[in-house]
Write a structure and sequence with these properties.
globular, about 210 residues, about 25% helix, alpha/beta
Length: about 210
């Protein structure tokens, strides 16, 4: 596992990830703990893997790139929409003051919280909820990261950004051969500045809390 982690960090550097804090955070979080036992041997390969509830754990490069683009400071309050396995929140927890993370699947959140406890990541607050609605009780946030594709910029989330705040969100069609782009949103005093970063492929951002059998 350790050799695989070293090779992954080298690969991320080759792909243009330069922020040493981000690379260090990824190095410190054991990705194998966030992956189904059947896929553990692939933990440090640079691709997405399936997790429960038909979701995925993102490719390490995408995690690193989104985190780098978020420009997280150590005193910041960060909202994550879509906890999934908990891996992205765990990486963020090494970079900021507090992470608030929302997941619509109770099963996923329960497993993620167990991992946070096991790793003694005590600056992560989580809840089951509708990620598209954000977390108004804890707003405003310095940074927001969305790990599912929205059909358009989620205005409720923009409203929960502080002035000067940044949101990274995949935007676009999630069915068929539709295009998605990773978008960087900065909230300014004058309004919102949008920058399209790169083509991506994410599961859709679905409103509401999931019904699980």
């Amino acid at each position: 596992m350790e050799q695989g982690k070293i090779e992954l960090i080298m690969s991320l550097r080759r792909q243009g990830i330069r922020d040493k804090r981000v690379l260090n955070a990824i190095e410190r979080i054991p990705r194998e703990l966030f992956i189904n036992a059947n896929f553990r041997k692939q933990a440090y390969e640079d691709h997405a893997l399936p997790i429960e509830c038909g979701q995925t754990i993102s490719q390490p490069f995408i995690v690193a790139y989104m985190t780098e683009q978020l420009q997280v400071g150590d005193r910041m309050k960060v909202l994550e929409v879509g906890t999934g396995s908990g891996y992205q929140a765990a990486v963020l927890s090494k970079l900021c003051r507090r992470v608030y993370t929302i997941e619509r699947y109770r099963t996923l959140l329960r497993d993620a919280v167990k991992r946070f406890d096991e790793l003694h990541l005590h600056n992560i607050t989580s809840k089951v909820g509708d990620g598209a609605a954000g977390w108004s009780e804890q707003a405003p946030f310095d940074r927001i990261i969305v790990t599912a594709a929205a059909p358009s910029i989620p205005q409720k989330l923009v409203e929960q950004l502080k002035p000067g705040g940044i949101m990274i969100v995949p935007v676009g069609i999630t069915s068929g051969r539709g295009d998605q782009n990773l978008v960087r949103i900065e909230r300014t005093e004058e309004g919102v500045v949008r920058n399209d970063l790169m083509p991506v492929r994410f599961v859709p951002l679905v409103e509401g809390v999931a019904k699980e059998s």
